[in-house]
Each structure stands twice: as C-alpha cells, then as structure tokens.
Specification:
Strand content: over 45%
Largest sheet: 24 strands, antiparallel, barrel
Distance between the termini: 31 Å
Number of helices: 4
C-alpha cells in the first residue's frame, strides 16, 4: 500500500513539474499565480470510563490529520492532500490506518475544454446517478481517481465525461465507473428567441455505468450495471421547480440481498421566495437505488450516487440525537417548509420583526411483494406507486427567531419526532424494538454586551414517551434528556463554553449520568485552536445525509484548523 502511494506521488510530482515548466515558458508576466491550502488536526486523549461505556484505548492518544495544498497559475491548477491516522480516532472506520498522499489532481481549463486527471469531485444533476464529494468531519471521501473532461462547445451547452475508480480508504475500489452528462440551458442556447424571457428552462440527462467482475460461484451476476435518466429545472422570478428521474438496471448486491429487481428514483423540489416569505416542498420516491462500485460493500463505502434525505438537518444536539438518513432499499419521503417574517412595528413583530419557521417531514417504506422466477430461480420483488408502507420517521418542527433589542435576541424551537429504530438503525423490521417518539424543546438566548463580546445560554430538553423506554425488558430509548450550554465570547478571538448533557430520565438509575464538557479556544483570521475536556455520550452523528456512529468517550480533545 505504501509503495503504491509513493509511486503515485512521484509520478504526480513529475507531471506537475513538467506542467509547471511548460506553462511558465509559454505564459506571460500578467498571468496570476497563487498557492493556497488548509490543514486540520483533530486529536483525543482517551480515559477509560465504565460508567458511560467508554472503552480502554491502548494507544491513549488518537488523531486524524489532513492537509491540502493547491497551486494555480493561469488556466492550470494542481493539488495534493496528505492524510495521517496514527491511529484513527474512535468512531471512525479502523481501515483508515496509516498515512500518505491520498488525493492528487492536475487540471487545465480553456474556453472549449476543461481536463482533470487524478482525484475528481463531480455531481450530475442532484446526484441521484453520480456524486463524489468529501466530508472531512466524517472521514467520507468517495472521489473518482481517473479523468474528467468538460466542454462547452456552444453557449448554453455543457458536456461532461469521466472514467475511473473510487477511493477506498488508502486504495481504490474494484469497480470501474464511466459516466456522461449533458445539460442545455434553453435561454442561453436560443438567446435570440428566449434570452429575454422571464422563464428560464434547463434540461439535463445522465448515463453512468459500473463494471465489476463476476466471481460468485453460485449466482450469475451482471458485470455491467448502468443507470440513466433526465432532469428539468424551471425558474421564473421567485419560483423554482426542478425534478429528476433515474432508472437502474438490476444490480444484485449485499444491500438488496442479491435481488434482481431494477431500481428507480424520482426527486422533485418546488420553492418560492420573496421578501418576508418563502416556502419549500420536496418529494422523493426511492426503490432499490443502492449503487456502489463494489456490490459486496455496505454502510457508506464506495457509493456512486447520492440520495438526499427529505428531512430537516438539525444543529442543536437534542434535535439531532436521532437523525435520519435515506434508506437505500426504498422509501417515500416528503418535506415542506414555510418561513415568514412578521413585519416590524406590528403587535407580534415588535421593533425588529419576528421570524417564524414551520417544517414537516415524513418518510415511509415501500411495501415489497416477493416474486420468484421459477425458470431462473432469481429473486425479485415488486412495488406499487400507490402502496405506501410503514412509517420510518417524521419531524414536526416550529422555530421562532426574535430580536428584542440591539443587545438581546433569542431562538425558540419545538419538535415532535417519530423514529423507527428497527429500520433506521438495524435495517430490518424484525428486531423487536419499539419506535421512539419524543418532544423536544430548545431555548437559545444571546446577550451582546459590546461589539465583540457576547454571552449565550442554550437550554434543551428531550421528553420521550414512557412506553418507548422499555419493551420486553430490552432497553429501547434512553428516556428524558436535558442539555445546558453557557458560552462566553469576551472578544473577537477567545471563546469559553461549559456544557452538560444529563440523561435524567434513563429507565436504569445507574445510567442517569451527567456528561460534562468544557471547551475554550482562540480564533484569529483563518486559524482556530480549541481544547475540550469531558464526556461524550454515544450516538449517531450526521452531516449532509452521511452518518456515523459516535461511541461514548471521556478525555481531552484538541482541534487545530488553519487555511492560507
């Protein structure tokens, strides 16, 4: 592994030097040139704590480190990312072990062609067929190691083509991915006819395929699997409508228990926004749309596409305690949100106005009817568009933002959540756990006593239904929670915070624990240093629809970020 990384790095540096020499000779003195990048270090010293289930860590100190360096000169750019895990922190996949150059690219862009070799991040449409991206906080990176070409042969037309293999920890996955995407902006293409029209029309279509050898001695597995579809986006003033459909041929995998059923997904979004009022409506139907470059992988590994969750992303800890992620095997989801600002000077608006947010999201499964082909012994299932299955998740959310004076402002939030633990956490309806129902309240008050100084108090409570706490002597929910945070920012650089999360309603009295945590840090420009000491409860942490399990821990954490 280290040899492959080293050889790849040497080849890349040689290419970079040749390219740099060429462009330096051909360029002129007025071509802009820059180097920029960023670094991040997250380390933790672990203390064994049996009361919260924090395990003993032999190394005591674990760290995640990465750094990006990018070079730009005129139409040419290149970059590398170095990552080091010695060893990786608790809660992350242990296959992130070691260090090396894991990301490298070189790119040359002209008016006609945009060519990139190396690790590529790209998205076709809304990502239903293809999306590669990186989320450092979750150690998620499914970049495509290969080549990408983008061309604009005519104003209003964008063509994209790519091929390669996905990153798989410190190596590449076995599957080969090839993709093509085309997009037409009707108003730009036919400028003389539609250039001045208020309604903007954009069409797009994609085709993505993967190749993986069939080495299964018992099944006849398709080696080439393709997904294809189209999209349309209509924009008129404050109104925006977009919809996308994708179809995938049969792709037996570990995700669908090697079913030969084809897959499909449709995702629609409608929004409208004017001063003081906006609304958003999203609808989604997913049926067997797991698409990986390795049919035997699971969790978040080697996903080719991205299926957005039609649920509200939360930042407050109690609201995000039971997060939801799209179920790849199938679901129907919807989300609606209205934001309204009560006018200044009115009875409810007061001097500064009042902002209201109402959000509702719902996710249900699909009723899958098993089918077996007696001639081939292949297993299938069928679904109907008008047949909605059991509930997976719902979230009814209200938020009020109010500024009382130049010094005081507050946020008040309430959420009622339903969480099908059998499906969301264990992937099957047969685990025997009761679904969780909770009512959550948040009060967040800030006092700004000077231009660079403020104090913020955050209070949260999660109240679980009693019947959800224990079922058949199995601990299901953890009962009621209370959270308090006091944060002080004395100036524009320093910050101090104390945090307590208390599981006071846990059905087991020995587990009614205070999770105390203290944090202080320093900010200056693009640099940030923070130190934290205390306990962290076990749970699930999600960013952008990608989730990971966070184990209980106790100890000292340091985080350093810097960019230039």
């Amino acid at each position: 592994m280290a040899c492959n990384i080293r050889n790849g790095f040497v080849l890349f540096i040689v290419f970079l030097l040749i390219s740099f020499t060429f462009f330096s000779q051909e360029g002129t003195s007025n071509i802009t040139e820059s180097i920029h990048g960023n670094f991040q270090i997250d380390g933790q010293y672990y203390i064994e704590d049996s009361t919260i289930g924090a395990p003993k860590v032999p190394e005591k100190f674990l760290s995640n480190v990465f750094g990006n360096i990018n070079y730009i000169k005129g139409d040419f750019s290149a970059g590398i990312r170095y990552e080091a895990y010695n060893n990786v922190r608790q809660g992350f996949d242990a296959r992130y072990k070691g260090q090396g150059i894991v990301n490298k690219f070189a790119r040359y862009k002209t008016d006609l062609l945009d060519i990139t070799i190396g690790n590529i991040y790209e998205q076709f449409g809304s990502g239903l067929m293809f999306r590669t991206y990186c989320e450092p906080g979750l150690l998620y990176d499914n970049s495509l190691d290969g080549i990408r070409l983008i061309s604009n042969p005519k104003k209003g037309i964008t063509l994209k083509g790519l091929a390669g293999k996905q990153r798989y920890f410190f190596e590449n996955g076995p599957g080969i991915i090839r993709g093509f995407d085309g997009e037409i902006n009707v108003n730009e293409l036919f400028d003389s006819l539609f250039g001045n029209k208020k309604t903007k029309i954009i069409f797009g279509s994609s085709l993505v395929s993967k190749y993986q050898s069939d080495l299964d001695p018992n099944l006849n597995l398709p080696q080439n699997v393709a997904t294809y579809g189209g999209r349309i986006n209509l924009i008129r003033d404050a109104f925006n409508f977009s919809t996308e459909y994708a179809y995938k041929i049969n792709d037996p995998s570990a995700d669908n228990k090697f079913s030969y059923k084809s897959g499909e997904v449709i995702f629609t979004s409608i929004s409208y926004a004017i001063k003081g009022l906006s609304f958003l409506l999203q609808l989604k139907r997913v049926d067997n749309m797991s698409f990986r470059s390795d049919r035997n992988e699971g969790l978040q590994s080697l996903l080719i596409n991205f299926l957005p969750a039609t649920t509200k992303p939360h930042t407050y800890s109690m609201l995000a305690l039971n997060p939801y992620a799209t179920q790849l095997k199938g679901e129907i989801g919807l989300m609606g949100e209205i934001q309204y600002k009560i006018k200044k000077g009115s009875l409810l608006g007061g001097k500064y106005g009042t902002e209201l947010t109402f959000n509702f999201s719902q996710a249900n499964g699909l009723n899958q009817i098993p089918v077996k082909d007696t001639l081939t012994a292949m297993t299938f299932y069928k679904t109907n568009y008008n047949d909605i299955g059991e509930g997976y998740y719902h979230d009814f959310y209200i938020e009020i933002n109010k500024k009382f004076s130049k010094e005081w402002k507050a946020t008040f939030a309430y959420s009622n959540q339903f969480y099908n633990r059998n499906i969301i956490q264990f992937g099957t309806a047969n685990e025997g756990y009761q679904s969780l129902v909770s009512n959550i309240g948040v009060v967040d008050i800030s006092y700004k006593y000077k231009s660079t100084g403020s104090i913020r108090l955050e209070l949260q409570g999660l109240f679980a239904d009693e019947q959800d706490m224990i079922t058949n002597s199995n601990l299901v929910g953890k009962g009621n929670w209370a959270t308090a945070l006091l944060e002080w920012t004395p100036n524009g650089n320093w910050f101090v915070a104390i945090f307590d999360q208390y599981n006071y309603g846990n059905p087991e009295s020995s587990s009614r624990i205070h999770y105390y945590l203290g944090t202080f840090g320093y900010n200056k420009g693009s640099n940030r240093i923070s130190l934290s000491y205390g306990k962290q409860s076990a749970g699930i942490f999600c960013v952008g629809g990608v989730c990971r399990t966070v184990p209980a821990s106790n100890g000292l954490t340091i985080s350093i970020t810097s960019s230039f």
